[in-house]
Amino acid sequence: MRRSLGDFPLKNRHTGEEEWATLYTPIAENNVDDFETRWQPEMIAKLATLKTHDEVQAANLQDVYWKWREKQQARSNRFDWQSFAVECGGETQGLMFVRTVGFARIDSQRNLPMIYIDLVSSAPWNRFGFTDTPLYKGVGPLLLGAAISLSVDEGLEGRLGLHALPQSESWYRNQGLTDLGIDAAHPEQLVYFEITSAHARAYVGVT
Amino acid sequence: MADKRTMTLNLSSQEMVILERLAGEKGLSKTQLVRQALRLYQSVVERLERGDKLFFEDSAKSEKAELMVL
Questions:
Q1: Is the pTM of this model over 0.95?
Q2: Considering only CA atoms, which of A39, A123, A28, A112 is closest in space to residue A75?
């Protein structure tokens, strides 16, 4: 059964005002419905207008076919997975799956247990690249903070890792994650990022 | 995890030594380590039930050795 982890402010870029979003765990039926009926049609419609690979990359659409419903159903009774959804303005604004079993790679924390972010997305209308006028600012930091908080709560000291889609690499660097370079073992050769315990605790304001 | 229940776990002295050592090395309490172990076990079992195999890879030699789970 899903529960609220609290209300957090997002900035509505159109009005300049703060709006309150609710962070839930786990992802629920209404969240995957929103992905299929709201996010995906807009992403597919946008994809249909793009001609070149560079345009597709720039439009920030690499997650258009992610299987949120299939994963939500397969992972719902598994302790090695947790999921989160952000709702604001009456609909889903962000989704995330994390794996609760992982082992760190940065030398200072090598082989210590950590959380691994498997999938994370903000609704397409919130993304630069997809639109020149994104709606909500703050969904990404809210979800990253939720993953770090989970890591702290589990005794993993805030440690987490992830493989970033190309359009997200600079964002993760700006959030203070360490870039460990392209992971040759990853099927899509994505760059692997990790956050140290010290950075993670500073990110969520834990002393 | 909203509800928690308490159980008593009987371990041999040697198992307790291993549990305490691993917990210390990983910076976890014994309960946290057992929780992590349970998740890892569930993850392995689920993949095996799907017909997947679990390998460790020697990163220096790029050789894989299958982990046999009975």
A1: no
A2: A28
